[in-house]
User: Fold this.
Amino acid sequence: PLVLGIESSCDETGVGIVRGTTLLTNTVSSSMDEHVRFGGVIPEIASRAHLDAFVPTLEQALSDAGVALDDVDAIAVTSGPGLAGALMVGVCAAKALAVATGKPLYAINHLVAHVGVGLLDGAGGGRHNGTAPQLPENLGALLVSGGHTEILRINSITEDVQLLGSTIDDAAGEAYDKVARILGLGYPGGPAIDKVARTGNPKSIRFPRGLSQPKFMGTAEEPGRHRYDWSFSGLKTAVARCVEQFEARGEEIPVADIAAAFQEAVVDVISSKAVLACREHGIKDVLLGGGVAANSRLRELTGQRCASAGIRLHVPPLDLCTDNGAMVAALGAQLVMAGVEPSGIRFAPDSSMPVTSVSLPA
Ligand code: ATP
Ligand code: MG
Ligand code: FE
Assistant:
């Protein structure tokens, strides 16, 4: 099926088009530049930017893919979670298109779409390195984004997914953004830390790995309450203390070393707990997704640890990690192919849509 996907949950206006598991186009317009001076996304500015960007982004996507709106078999839109006003723009646009064209509309979970994008195949000349899994049973998904850090089990992507573990405080992307601010690296922090960390020594400082002590982990037989959970707020505080100590001593702050050591702590604990959860649930295939999945060290270390554990890790190309419309189209196409009923046009966007709900029922 030819599916058009619309994304507007945060500061990216995205329209993507897929045919089955083949990506035709992924067109994204970001209002990031307008938020930089505030050091974070301002919801009202993001909503207005979506209004301005939607029609040009849609037209660009259709022209890049060489398809007409009439050729499309279904429309998919992010209905949550995200910023309420931002979601509203994409949802209203999608409903209008669905009514005008008579096409079925699917209300899609943004978080499931972040990992579902890994089901696209080697579109555009092996962009996806040709390893899209044919939906193996007992599929795992590691979602590491700006607002979420979760390890999921997906028995069927069209049915409800199961949450195995998650962060109990900050999301990994949030920690990157906060630590970047502490280090004076600006916004968004993830890409900045990733870059500067390459010149630092990750072993120079040992930052805490949250919830890794035996009392939280327990054993395989008697798992602790937070065996597969993460915590990043203590790590953020440890970085702030570390910077203060250098300042108090009047020493120059070793930004690259701190960034590298912080990144190592995040990536170490994410990858080790994800692999543990997969091993203990017999999971052999894992989809990696979310904005932080663009992180070079997370991709490297998680890849190595999965390989040692005999787990196949499916990593999307960089431009499909952060928010985009192709991921929404990709998950929408899976639902169409599985014969799932469309959502109709009466649903409302849900800013706190739980990850366990893949799409909204009619
Ligand atoms: P959610 O998907 O949970 O609703 P979001 O949509 O705001 O949140 P994403 O777009 O998935 O988040 O990801 C944005 C986050 O990814 C930001 O926190 C950003 O700093 C982080 N990020 C992007 N690139 C990298 C990178 N190379 N290394 C680390 N973090 C990164
Ligand atoms: Mg964004
Ligand atoms: Fe996102």
In short: The radius of gyration is 20 Å. Residues 255-280 form the longest helix (26 residues). The chain has a mean pLDDT of 94.
